[in-house]
Amino acid sequence: MDRQIPKEEIRRMKRKRYVTIGCAIAGIIVLVGVVMMLSQSSISRNDLLIATVDRGTIRSSVNAGGKVVPAFEEIINSPIATRIVEVYSKAGDSVDVGTPLLRLDLQTAQTELNKLQDQIEMRRHELEQQRVNNATQLSDLEMQIKIKQMTVDRMAVELRNERYLDSLGSGTGDRVRQVELQYNTGRLELEQMRQRLVNERKVTDANLRLKELELNITGKNLGEMQRTLDDAQIRSPRKATLTYINNQVGQKVAEGERIAIISDLTHFKVDGEIADSYGDRVTVGSDAVVRIGKERLSGKVSNVTPLSRNGVISFTVQLDDDSYSRLRSGLKTDVYVMCDVIEDVTRVPNGTFYTGPGEYEMFVLKGDDELVRRNVRLGDSNFEHVEVKGGLEPGDRVVINDMKEYNTRKSIRIK
């Protein structure tokens, strides 16, 4: 027959079980803490990059991101609003000067060209008609002036005769005054006709120049339309590589819309971007170093965008060796633009630890198996060295890889 266990015994057994479980959990926590402490307080020498602090010259630089782009790239736009009829080439093709790329629908443009040709012919006829009309009008007026001159000359003779007769007593004063009035009137009419001839010549010359100007304007419009039609025969303007083409046959394209891009993929440049806070340190003509992996290519800043866009200034680096074999369009690079030269300074080799001037927690090698944390103040840099403004002395051996995860440790043992 089973005996009932006292309640006090049950409580004692539960407490014992709880204590046992608590001790086990505490042991695990302590073990994990010890392992973490040991792992954080020691590091393998193979994981460290150790460099020696020295003194020397630093040609400071600013770091920027860059992208390799073709040294030459030409965008071909549609000269008219039309549609694509045929495509003769595809992206990636090597094209020569004059190679057909695609054909556009030019029927509407050709009709406009024919209209302008008809207008040119009409303007020529109008100009010739104006010349004939001007010549006829001026010739008639000149003939009228000659006839009027003869009439005035005859009146002058009559006036002389009447005056002579009046002096002999055979004439009358009234007759003399009448003839004299007719003579003076004739002279005024002759002068009026001569002035009219001068004015008519100016008017006819102005009308003629107007017709010539209309003809010239129409001729220029015709020439512009002819050039547009020639441009619409989409051909490669030079020897290069076709990197883009709109191959959608039948698609409508607007005037000025991009339809093809040709690029020279044998020569390259680098387009860089940098924060506008460094804009005053990037100038045209500055030396620059482009790093591709472990390779370094020298060049010069050839262009700087004067405006900041989204806090970024763009610039272009012209490479000394722009046909280097490792250059590829679209390749990302690091660009270092050289600035001031700093003579005789304490310096440390550049590494992944450096993110810009300021205060750093760095580890200095003490003896052969211990790293000691030290507060260090760093200044300008280039792609090789960083200026040390305080906290390190020449001869110190310092870790130059990223050690942020150990910044809470005052010292680290080297395994």
Q: In words, what does this structure look like?
A:
It is built from three helices and 19 strands. With 415 residues, the protein is of the alpha+beta class. A six-stranded antiparallel β-barrel has the order 3-10-13-12-11-14. A four-stranded antiparallel sheet has the order 7-6-4-9. Strands 2-18 form a two-stranded antiparallel sheet. It starts with 6 loop residues before the first helix and ends with a strand.
What percent of residues adopt helix (DSSP H or I)?
25-40%
Let me know the largest β-sheet. 6 strands, antiparallel, barrel
Helix-strand sequence: HEEEEEEHHEEEEEEEEEEEEE
Q: Using DSSP, what is the number of strands? A: 19
* Rg value: 49 Å
| Percentage beta strand | 35-45%
Adjacency order of strands in the biggest sheet: 3-10-13-12-11-14
- What does the oligomeric state look like here? single chain
What does the average pLDDT come to? 82
Euclidean distance between termini CA atoms: 67 Å
As residue ranges, the low-confidence spans are none
Structure summarized in a few sentences:
Helix content is 38%, strand content 35%. It is α+β, with helices and mostly antiparallel strands.
List the helices and strands and how they pair.
Blueprint: H1 7-40, E1 42-43, E2 50-52, E3 54-77, E4 82-87, E5 94-95, E6 100-104, H2 107-168, H3 173-232, E7 233-235, E8 240-245, E9 252-253, E10 258-275, E11 287-292, E12 295-304, E13 312-319, E14 332-349, E15 358-366, E16 370-381, E17 385-390, E18 397-399, E19 411-414
Parallel strand pairs: 1-19
Antiparallel strand pairs: 2-18, 3-10, 3-14, 4-6, 4-9, 5-8, 6-7, 8-10, 10-13, 11-12, 11-14, 12-13, 14-17, 15-16, 16-17, 16-19
